[in-house]
């Protein structure tokens, strides 16, 4: 995605590395700094109004999870879980760029997310 | 007392609607107090009532647990990830085990001023590779990082019918970590949730097979993060390895890394 892409109003202002994906591709490039991520809700997780996001390769899973949690306004007692390849939770420190290399298809990385109270 | 009430309810059950109503009633009672034993018994009763297993059941029978572990261990062997199977002598019970050396900032430990030169002999190559300042002398290594030893065990819980993660942690000179120290080493991604209810997340428990004090991640909400993954796999007609999925979720909470290759290289049991 081009660096001067407009961010929609719902994008977190302090997260410039996660932007709503533009509908036009600016041209294929092996050195693309951002990857397209498609977020899909599972279980009773709220569905995000914007599902497709442009995320910097170096962004971690944890950082993305925090972004989604804030976006969905989750409570502090709720934990967000992210799955890649349907059934594997990547480490929070894993970079999304690496996930894209391993599991991306059709130019995007599909990530499923769910929320729960999780522990106890 | 609660189980007696459940039995009385069950005796009048005839239709799936009754089963659901009873399940909801028991659920409300049990989840209020989060009594783990009762919850386990509740699960057993419900499974019995359900008759044949729901295809996307969150529960794991012991045989499948062992099969999943075997497949998991095969891949661990391939990538030298350090897992092994420990069989309890004279029984057919066992568990998976892995020991990890983990560098942390000395300020993490209460006794940071006691980090002494003798620790340098126990620092492995792997740990030294993690130290950012590779040109620093050993003294600097000692000051930048202390090393913790984490030992993880994956056990099968008969009462919950799911795997449970136990672990113990100590410094290299053998001092066990306190509960507070272990909490403070929980991955930041989970720390906020942990702070909301530390006692129902990570506690000290007696290891069911070894009888020694360990820490344990509470299992009674395992289904909440397993069910979505199980449903997803089922929807895609994919079979998954329960242990791979489960460990990938719970491991990172307590700094246990599960490499990505497990996701693609470990098959589901037949």
UniProtKB/TrEMBL annotation, chain A:
InterPro entries reported for this sequence: Atg12, Ubiquitin-like_domsf
GO BP: autophagosome assembly; autophagosome maturation; autophagy of mitochondrion; glycophagy; piecemeal microautophagy of the nucleus
UniProt GO molecular function: Atg8-family ligase activity
Keyword rRNA processing: no
Cellular localization per UniProt: Cytoplasm; Preautophagosomal structure membrane
Cellular component, GO annotation: Atg12-Atg5-Atg16 complex; autophagosome membrane; phagophore assembly site membrane
Signal peptide per UniProt: none
Membrane topology: Peripheral membrane protein
Region (Disordered): 1-31
Keywords (A to Z) from UniProt: Acetylation, Autophagy, Cytoplasm, Isopeptide bond, Membrane, Ubl conjugation pathway
SUPFAM superfamilies assigned to the protein according to its UniProt record, in alphabetical order: Ubiquitin-like
Pfam families, per database record: APG12
Compositional bias ranges of the Polar residues kind: 1-10
Job of this protein: Ubiquitin-like protein involved in autophagic vesicle formation.
Subunit and partners: Forms a conjugate with ATG5.
Protein family membership: Belongs to the ATG12 family.
Protein name: Ubiquitin-like protein ATG12
Top-level taxonomy: Eukaryota, Metazoa, Chordata, Craniata, Vertebrata
From TrEMBL, chain B:
Cellular component aspect of the GO annotation: cytosol
Alphabetical list of Gene3D superfamilies matching this protein: 3.30.1460.50
Classification via Pfam families: Autophagy_act_C (PF03987)
Keyword terms of this UniProt record: Autophagy, Transferase, Ubl conjugation pathway
The protein, known as: Ubiquitin-like-conjugating enzyme ATG10
UniProt GO molecular function: Atg12 conjugating enzyme activity
Similarity field: Belongs to the ATG10 family.
Gene that this polypeptide is encoded by: LOC109059686
Lineage: Eukaryota, Metazoa, Chordata, Craniata, Vertebrata
Gene Ontology biological process terms in this record: autophagosome assembly; autophagy of mitochondrion; protein modification by small protein conjugation
């Amino acid at each position: 995605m081009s660096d001067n892409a407009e961010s929609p109003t719902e994008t977190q202002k302090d997260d410039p590395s996660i932007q709503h994906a533009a509908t036009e591709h600016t041209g294929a490039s092996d050195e693309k700094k951002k990857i397209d991520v498609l977020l899909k809700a599972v279980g009773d997780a709220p569905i995000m109004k914007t599902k497709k996001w442009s995320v910097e390769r170096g962004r971690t899973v944890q950082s993305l999870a925090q972004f989604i949690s804030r976006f969905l306004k989750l409570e502090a007692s709720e934990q967000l879980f992210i799955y890649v390849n349907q059934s594997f939770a990547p480490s929070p420190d894993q970079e999304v760029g690496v996930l894209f290399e391993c599991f991306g298809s059709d130019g995007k990385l599909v990530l499923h997310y769910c929320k729960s109270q999780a522990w106890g | 007392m609660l189980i007696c009430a459940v039995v009385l309810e069950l005796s009048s059950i005839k239709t799936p609607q009754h089963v659901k109503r009873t399940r909801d009633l028991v659920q409300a009672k049990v989840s209020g107090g989060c009594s783990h034993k009762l919850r386990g018994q509740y699960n057993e009763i419900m499974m019995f009532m359900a008759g044949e297993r729901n295809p996307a059941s969150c529960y794991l029978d012991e045989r499948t647990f062992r099969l999943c572990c075997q497949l998991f261990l095969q891949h661990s062997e391939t990538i030298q990830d350090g897992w092994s199977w420990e069989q309890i002598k004279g029984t057919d019970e066992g568990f998976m085990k892995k020991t990890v050396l983990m560098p942390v900032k000395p300020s993490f430990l209460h006794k940071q001023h006691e980090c002494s030169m003798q620790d340098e002999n126990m620092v492995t190559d792997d740990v030294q590779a993690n130290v950012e300042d590779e040109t620093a002398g050993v003294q600097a290594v000692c000051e930048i990082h202390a090393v913790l030893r984490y030992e993880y065990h994956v056990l099968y819980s008969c009462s919950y019918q799911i795997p449970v993660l136990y672990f113990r942690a100590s410094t290299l000179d053998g001092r066990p970590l306190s509960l507070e120290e272990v909490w403070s080493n929980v991955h930041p991604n989970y720390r906020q949730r942990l702070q909301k209810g530390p006692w129902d997340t990570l506690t000290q428990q007696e290891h069911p097979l070894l009888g020694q004090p360990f820490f344990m991640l509470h299992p009674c909400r395992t289904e909440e993060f397993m069910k979505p993954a199980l449903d997803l796999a089922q929807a895609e007609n994919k079979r998954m390895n329960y242990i791979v999925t489960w460990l990938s979720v719970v491991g990172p909470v307590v700094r246990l890394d599960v490499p990505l290759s497990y996701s693609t290289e470990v098959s589901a049991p037949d």
